Amino acid sequence: MLKFGTDGWRAIIAEEFTFHNLRLVTRAVADYLKSKTDAPTVVIGYDNRFMGAEYAAAVAETMAACGVRAILGDQAYPTPVVAYAVREFKATGGVMLTASHNPYYYNGFKFIPDYAGPATGEITSAIERNIASLTGGAPAPRAEERVDIAITTLDSAYRVHLLDFIDTKSIRAAKISAGIDPYYGAGLNLMPALAREAGLAATVIHDSIDPLFGGTLPDPSEANLTELRSLVKENGLDMGLALDGDADRFGVITSDGRYLTPNQVVAIILLHMVKNRGAQGAAVRTVATTHLIDAVAAAYNIEVVETPVGFKYVGAVMRQRSVIIGGEESGGLSVLGHIPEKDGLLANLLLAEMVAREGRSLADIWDGIRADFGDYFNTRLDIEYPQTKMAALLKGLASAPPKVLAGLNVTGVNRTDGVKLLLAGDAWLLVRPSGTEPLIRAYIEAKSHKKLIALESAVREMLQK
After folding, report:
1. Can you tell me whether residue 121 is helix, strand or coil?
2. What is the location of CATH 3.30.310.50 in the chain?
C-alpha cells in the first residue's frame, strides 16, 4: 500500500513512483478535497526532478477528471511558493511533486492543506484510507473537463510578501555580498532574483536545471557546499547561502568559510527575531533539535515548545498560537508572520537582514552567541538495527534507562518521540526508529566535543548489548 511518511509519499521513479500510482494517489486526494467542499480547487507544483512537468500534468488532468479545478504552475517552483499559492488562491489544497533532498532517482507527492503547511497525520491517514478503498486506476480526463486546468505563475504574491517582510532597506545600505547556491533545484531562478531585489550583491553557482543534481544529493550539507565555500573565500564574499532540491531547507557558509549547521542557524534567527525585530511569542523546536534554542529563549523569557520530529508538528503549533520561530535540526524553519511551512529562501534572507541590522559578519554573530551561551556539539548516528527488536528497545530504555551514560548521570526520560534521555551537564540522547529503514537514529548533544565523542561510543555499545 502507498503510504505517506513524515513529509509525503516518496518512492523510486519507475519502480513505485509510476504514472499509475501517481494517478491513484491523486484520485485519493481528489476524493478528500471533494469531502471538504462542493467546488474544490487545488494548486499543483513540481521541482526540477526528472519528468516533473509531465508528472504534474498527469496530476492536473486526473484532478480535472475527478471534478477538482486544477491550478498548475507554469514552471518548477519551490515548496514554500506552492504552499503560499494555496493561501493566495484560497485553494482547498495543494500538491507539490518533490522528493526534497532525497537522491535524484526518487520523486514524491506532498499534499498541502488549505492552511498552507504540512498535512497532519489525521489528514494523511484519511488520504491513505481513500487509497486503500480504490481499485484500478484513476479516471481518464475527458476533453470537456480540461477547461478546469489553469496554467499560471505561482510566485507573484510570494515575492511581494517576502520582499515586504524582509528589511531590504537595511540590506541595501549594508552593501552585503553573497554567494548563492540553489543546487540545481526549484529555487534556481527565484533565490538569486530575491537576493538581488533585496539588495544583495549575488554571485550564483549551480543555477542550471540538472535532474541529477550534479551527481550528489540535493542537500545543502557541509559536504555538498565545498564549491560554495570556495566561492565565498576566494572572492571575499560576506556569506554563502544555499538551498535543497525544493528550496524548503537552507545551507549557510560564513565569510571565513565556516559551515553553520541548521541547529546553529535556528538559534541565530531566533535571537534576531527577538533582539532586532522585537517579536513576541513562543519558540518551537522538535525533540531532536538543539537545546541552544532553550538557552537563547531563557535569556529573553521565551517559552519553548517541544514537538515530535517532523515540521508538520511544528506547523501545527504555529497555527494554534503566536510563534516567533519554528525550527528543526534537519534544516527547516519558519517565523512569525509567514506561512506554517519550512522555507529556505526566507531563512537565507533573514540571515542577510541580521548581518545588515547588526553591522557585523555572520561569523562574528555566531562567535558572540558561543561566548554568551557556550558551545553545543551535536550529531546524528544512523545505526543498523533489526526492526523486529525496535519496540522492545524503546520500551526497555523508557522503563529501565541506564543510570549513567559516558560518565553522565541520566536525570530524566522524555517520550515525546522515541526515547530521549536527559543527562547531567545539559547533554541529552534521543533514540528513535527510522520508520522507513532498519535503522535506529540516535541524536546526541553535549557541551564539549570530547563528551560528544564519549557519548557516541557509549550509545553504540548500549545498542549492541
Report:
1. helix
2. 377-464
What is the fold, at CATH topology level, of the domain defined by 377-464?
A: TATA-Binding Protein (3.30.310)
Say if CB 431 and CB 423 are below 8 A apart.
no
Q: From 3.20.20.140, 3.30.530.20, 3.40.50.300, 3.40.120.10, which CATH number describes the 158-373 domain?
A: 3.40.120.10
Q: Phi/psi at 361 (nearest 5 deg)?
A: -75, 165
What count of other Cβ atoms lies within 10 Å of the Cβ of residue 402?
13
Q: Which of 262, 276, 299 is nearest to 355 (CA)?
A: 276
Q: Which of 52, 164, 71, 149 is nearest to 112 (CA)?
A: 71
CA-to-CA distance for 120 and 450, rounded, in angstroms? 39
pLDDT the model gives residue 386: 86
Pairing of strands 149-152, 41-46: unpaired
Chain region(s) in the chain for CATH 3.40.120.10: 9-154, 158-373
Distance CA 450, CA 273 (A): 32
**17-35 tens-digit pLDDT:** 999 999 999 999 999 999 9
Model pLDDT, residue 141: 53
Distance CA 288, CA 419 (A): 11
Q: Is the dihedral of CA 408, 410, 412, 416 positive or negative?
A: positive
Return d(Cα 143, Cα 384) in angstroms, integer. Answer: 51
Dist. CA 72–CA 60, nearest whole Å: 7
Say if residue 144's pLDDT is above 70.
no
Tell me the per-residue pLDDT of 259-290, one tens digit each, with 9 for 90 and over: 999 999 999 999 999 999 999 999 999 999 99
* Range with lowest mean pLDDT among 57-71, 141-155, 159-173, 251-265: 141-155
- φ/ψ region of 378 (left if φ > 0, alpha if ψ in -120 to 50, else beta) reads beta
What mean pLDDT comes out for the span 351-364?
A: 98
CATH class entry, domain 9-154: alpha beta
Which residues are CB-neighbours of 360 under 8 A, at least 6 positions away?
none
The pLDDT tens digits for 410-443 are 999 999 999 999 999 999 999 998 866 788 999 9
